[in-house]
Amino acid sequence: MTALSLLFVALTTSQASRRVELSAGFTSNMVLQRSSKNGPFIYGFASDIDGEIPGIFAEVEGVGGGGEKVKYTKKALYVRKFEQDETPSDPATPQPPPHGSYEWKVELNPSNAGGNYSILIHDDKAGDMGEVRVENVTYGDVWFCSGQSNMALSLSYTFSVESLARELRQANDNITDIRHFQYGGMGDHFEAYSPQWITTWNSLSADPNLFHWHIAKESAKEPLHLNKRFSPFALFSATCMYFGVELSKRMATKVPIGLIQSAVGGTQIESWMSNETLSTCSDVSRTGGAVPQNNGRLYYGMVAPFANYSVRGMIWYQGENNVYGDPGNSIQHQGYGCELPAMIRNWRNIWRSEKQPLFGVAALAGGGSEGYGYHMGEFRWAETANFGHWNNPQMPNTFGAQVYDLEDPWAVVLGRDPYNCSLPDPNTGKYGKECKPFPKPDKWSKELRYLAPLVRNNSPAGIPGSAYMGGIHPRDKRPVGERLALSAIQLLHPETQSSLHGLAGTGPTLVGCKYHGHRLVIGLNVSLLGKEGLELRPFNNNRSSWGKKVTDSLGGMVCIASSTNTTQRIGNQTTCHCQGWDYIMMDPPKGSQNPGTFWYCRFGPGYKPPKHVIQNEDRRKQVEKSIVDAKLRYNTDSPLTWVPATNPYQSQWIPVDLKSVGSNRYAVEWDLKQAGIQDTVHAIRLAWPLFDSPLVGDTCCPSKDVREGKAICLPGSCPLYTNITANSFHQNLFSRSKEKWLPSR
After folding, report:
1. Could you read off the pLDDT of 8-62 as tens digits, one per residue?
2. pLDDT tens per residue across span 160-190
3. Cβ contact 214:29 at 8 Å
4. What is the b/e burial string over 382-392, where b = at least 16 CB atoms within 10 angstroms of the residue's CB?
5. Residue 21 φ/ψ, nearest 5 degrees
6. What is the C-alpha end-to-end distance of the chain, expressed in Å?
7. DSSP class of residue 411?
């Protein structure tokens, strides 16, 4: 048994008599936020003796980051009667362990990065029984990682878990001291009716052997899974850990990194903000999820406990359970576009930090089975507060990563593999005869080449084909963390390596277009590109080679004027300028046995059924009447199923290749000539699916072989990059008479 284990056993045996307790997150091995001005808080509970108010002090002793000896004592800022309502809001949420009737808070001295400290918290009126000690405490940068299942997804389900464990075990000066603390997970969550600023949930009081900080290079030494149980390292958030490791590598000054995971699968953003904050946005989503969505229960139970735990920043990966709702708009205070920046302001207002905490966003991945395909483009736009990039007026000091090109390489066959292409046939030990050759490493982009053997092996944590609920949780999470870290570094000056100065903190971002004659060129934001050049990658725009049901992709698309046959057209303006479609199933028209599908532009111009009609259970007849009144035609080519009939307006969107414009690294031409386009172009889009289900159209890999499971979807296969993939956009064109830049929306 290690010395650390003995420490926790000792804490367990003294638990019954302990009169001083620490709130969740304060344990041995923890990382406290470094600062030159404000010291970090440490807080918890204490019991009284015969009604006497406890006298709480913190004694700190150790060695600072510069090797200097440190020793001091601090008195609690306050010791007061605890009056917080701890009633769980859900039967599944356990009662917090019993604790003292007083709460206390101590402000420690500020410190630079590093050091090794012992902190003794004691009640000077209770003797040896009224104390608790934590050891091996250091100072560094602390990051709070939250969201739903793609943040909660553990390392054990990712391709890179074993290689990362080896890397950490052999850690040299390239990777600094990384530590991790887990508070909740896929189904492990803590709901409350009011803010739990201090709690014994998942604290030393709950279980000192389980709920404590881990040093990554030590936890990575444990077997990833043993006796059907995963190690603390294997269970930790993959996105959070990969982010921390890459951030550690990129920092010019080696600083300990502390990672706190507080994420719950299947949740919506409404649960993660206060009721007061939620009330500032209209058209919020009420579509359900793992937690009731309209009462901030996870904000109160899983965010509030860490509001006084100083951090450098937060990262957020969430949205799958909100994409069915209204993407909305930050300026109009609607939907997700309002909710995300409002939540960021909410968190920053309550968090105690010297600097305004940075906030990072991982946009929704492509190829998932849970995201609503017709809203994915508009939703990714909403994740930037409708600016098309992060660090904007509505979301200052934010960074982000587009990861739509990182769908799971085997998303289509997860759970089945009909041709034995993702794993060998267990009977023969060979891959199937129908399988296409696996791409050699030189076919992979340079920054993703390390994934090639891991994807070929397809055995996360040594378990063949291991995945969590299919393609909605892509297993190539390391690039997600790497992109977030690369983006964050640009906001961490002057702490970045000089070699990174000038790198783009975001992908190529549209600022406008030139459209003259039959030539269409898009301009990119120069200030966001830094010193980076563009990279154009080959993309399959040959629709004849696409999968049987594939009519859309995340590549470059242009919308042309309608043909002379206008029986299924509702006008070029609506067809091309619509940013998101929706549909309603209807009763068969007279004389037909086939139910109909009425398509309408939900986000953009054109007719929209009234809300009371859309939401009514007996809506078909009402919708039919409203459509007749509007003199609109609807499609009747499909039987009534949850899979909608083909949108009749999609044929006006044509895939095109992108090509460079000489030496101009801030512009890209859309090759209309190669696509044979002579008609007027009304709109363009990139990484903005409109028509297919997410497993089909929300993809960088539309080819038939990939969609049938005979070949992998090569990560990083979309067409436009810098060091990070391009930001999504949908741009309307209004003129071709003059050669000028047309501003983006």
Report:
1. 433 433 333 458 999 999 999 999 999 988 899 999 999 987 778 899 999 999 9
2. 999 999 999 987 777 889 999 999 887 778 8
3. yes
4. bbbbbbbbbbe
5. -130, 150
6. 62
7. G
Give the number of other Cβ atoms within 10 Å of residue 542's Cβ. 11
- If you write DSSP's letter for every residue of 197-252 in order, what string do you get? SS--TTSTTT-TTTSS-EEHHHHTTS-SEETTEE-HHHHSBHHHHHHHHHHHHHBS
- Environment class of residue 30 by beta-carbon count within 10 Å: exposed (0-12), middle (13-18) or buried (19+)? buried
Counting beta carbons within 10 angstroms of the beta carbon of residue 531, is it exposed (0 to 12), middle (13 to 18) or buried (19 or more)? exposed
What does the DSSP 8-state code read for residue 303?
I
Q: Please name which of 350, 99, 332 lies closest in space to residue 206, comparing C-alpha atoms.
A: 99
C-alpha–C-alpha distance, residues 719 and 175, integer Å:
32
Q: Is the peptide bond before 418 cis (omega within 30 degrees of 0)?
A: no
Nearest C-alpha neighbor of 303 from the set 191, 181, 394: 191
- The number of residues in the chain equals 745
Q: Is the backbone of residue 95 left (phi > 0), alpha (psi -120 to 50) or beta?
A: beta
Question: What are the backbone angles phi and psi of residue 478, rounded to the nearest 5°?
Answer: -60, -45
Check residue 494 and give its pLDDT.
44
- Residue 279 has, within 13 A of its CA and on its CB side, a CA count of 4
Categorize the per-residue pLDDT at 741 as very low, low, confident or very high, splitting at 50, 70 and 90: very low
Strands 102-107 and 41-46: antiparallel
Which strands form 664-670's sheet, in the order they lie side by side? Answer: 658-661, 664-670, 519-524, 510-516, 741-743
Q: Give residue 617's identity as a one-letter amino acid code.
A: E
Q: At what angle do helices 238-250 and 478-489 cross, to 10 degrees?
A: 40
What does the alpha-carbon distance between residue 62 and residue 584 come to, in Å, rounded to a whole number? 67
- Token pair for residue 79? 């010791």
Return left, alpha or beta for 47; rule: phi > 0 is left, psi -120 to 50 is alpha, else beta. beta
- Residue 125: what residue type? K
